[in-house]
Specification:
There is one protein chain. By secondary structure, the chain is an alpha/beta fold. Helix content is 37%, strand content 16%. The protein contains 15 helices and 15 strands. The protein has helices at residues 20-28, 47-52, 60-66, 78-81, 100-109, 130-147, 177-189, 200-210, 221-230, 251-255, 305-326, 328-334, 336-339, 352-358, 365-368, and strands at residues 2-5, 32-36, 56-58, 69-71, 89-92, 112-115, 169-173, 192-197, 214-218, 233-236, 262-265, 286-289, 292-295, 342-345, 348-349. It has an eight-stranded mixed sheet, sandwiched between helices. Strand 7, helix 7 (177-189) and strand 8 form a beta-alpha-beta unit. Helix 6 (130-147) runs parallel beside helix 7 (177-189). It binds nicotinamide-adenine-dinucleotide. The site of nicotinamide-adenine-dinucleotide (NAD) has 34 residues, from helix 6, helix 7 and strand 8.
Length: 374
């Protein structure tokens, strides 16, 4: 198969969808790898490193027109919509539940859109979201600590305190991959940490791994209201796969928060779980509403591309190999986890939560993609 790797052009995005090591694996499987010139620059992978393993360096036009399977990191942006075509399989983060123009472009082009973030295993884990969630969670705690500093508009509080002075309060809403990693770093910095979760099983697991160092509370509107009012840092980390994030923290609750406190709404890529959140970028990561600093960067792992690119390709490569080796239909038939990744095919939406988020018709994948027998 012709496997393309496009350069990311979204502002402040430095990751690339395949490392030279990953390119070599695909080439050893007998595939052609086309890498857009400069695609790896932001992650410290020079063009020569791809050439050295046998990949072909091509222009932006060539990579988009020649690839049968195109690997990206972020969703196509408006200037790329015209490049989508019906004989292309696009494998990338799509996050379409919160993006109306994108879903229209995907549907109208007939492209097959396979979203990293909805690939889901039988035990309901999200293997291609997990590595980025680990990174975003860790960064969220760092960002919270950083923006509490007075010269940056914060309360002027050292999150970890010092002997004789209380540490800050970190409230994490959603104790999944982002939430757990945010809690680990916040605890490491010395903060008091509360996690609000709604899955009791998940809370039991968090208690096992984090012990009594965190307070675990059942998430409800009332509990969120109380916890958020006491917090110095609130980290939004909920997820309902494929769906818009529920708006759990209302504008009224934000108004009751302490002056100079920080909200890091990591769930912003699914629309955000705080009513006053709107997406920001690494160049302008924060804005203030009612005295509360909002950090809502939609592609947080893009800030640490050397770590993120390697973590991402470690996770995606087996799926990329499966699609390249067997073709999408057979790869999906062999692996139900991958079938959950198919969001759009032939102009039809094949992921229920995405269709629901846009009020559009849902077509079960089996009806649209004739699955080859294994
Ligand atoms: N901004 C970024 O750069 C970035 C990077 C990675 C992930 N994310 C986003 O972070 C969010 C969390 O991702 P994740 O990998 O941790 O997901 P996850 O599925 O591992 O965890 C989500 C958790 O939220 C919990 N939850 C659901 N509804 C809740 C509620 N009402 N109250 C409390 N908890 C609730 C779930 O039980 C689950 O444990 C997602 O929206 C994801 O897209 C953003």
């Amino acid at each position: 198969m012709e496997v393309g790797v496009a350069k990311e052009i979204k502002p402040d995005e430095y990751r690339v969808a395949l490392t030279p090591a990953g390119a070599l694996e695909l080439i050893q499987h007998g595939h052609d790898v086309l890498v857009e010139t400069g695609a790896g620059d932001g992650s410290a992978f020079a063009d020569s490193a791809y050439e050295a393993v046998g990949a072909r360096l091509v222009s932006v036009d060539e990579v988009w027109s020649e690839a049968e399977l195109l690997l990206k990191v972020k969703e196509p942006i408006a200037s790329e919509y015209g490049r989508l075509r019906d004989d292309l399989v696009l494998f990338t983060y799509l996050h379409i539940a919160a993006d109306e123009p994108l879903i229209r472009a995907l549907v109208e082009s007939g492209v097959t859109g396979v979203a990293y973030e909805t690939v889901e295993t039988a035990n309901r884990s999200l293997p291609l979201l997990a590595p980025m969630s680990e990174i975003a969670g860790r960064l969220a705690a760092q960002a919270g600590a950083y923006f509490l500093e007075k010269p940056l508009g914060g309360r002027g509080l050292l999150l970890g305190g010092v002997p004789g002075v209380s540490p800050g309060e970190v409230v994490v809403i959603g104790g999944g991959m982002v939430g757990y990693n945010a809690a680990v770093i916040a605890l490491g910095l010395g903060a008091n940490v509360t996690i609000l979760e709604r899955s009791i099983d998940r809370m039991r697991h968090l208690e096992e791994v984090l012990g009594s160092r965190v307070t675990l509370l059942m998430s409800s509107s009332l509990q969120i209201e109380e916890s958020v009012a006491d917090a110095d840092v609130v980290i939004g980390a909920v997820l309902i796969p494929g769906a818009l994030a529920p708006r759990l923290v209302t504008a009224d609750m934000v108004r009751e928060m302490k002056e100079g406190s920080v909200i890091a709404d990591v769930a912003i890529d699914q629309g955000g779980c705080v009513e006053t959140s709107r997406p920001t970028t690494h160049s302008e990561p924060v804005y203030v509403v009612d005295g509360v600093t909002h950090y809502c960067v939609a592609n947080m792992p893009g800030a640490v591309p050397i770590t993120s690119t390697k973590a991402l390709t470690n996770a995606t490569l087996p799926y990329v190999e499966a699609i390249a080796d067997h073709g999408l239909a057979e790869a999906v038939a062999r692996d139900p986890a991958l079938s959950h990744g198919v969001n759009v095919l032939d102009g039809k939406i094949t992921y229920e939560a995405v269709a629901e988020a846009h009020g559009l018709e849902y077509h079960p994948l089996d009806d649209v993609l004739p699955l080859s027998p294994v």
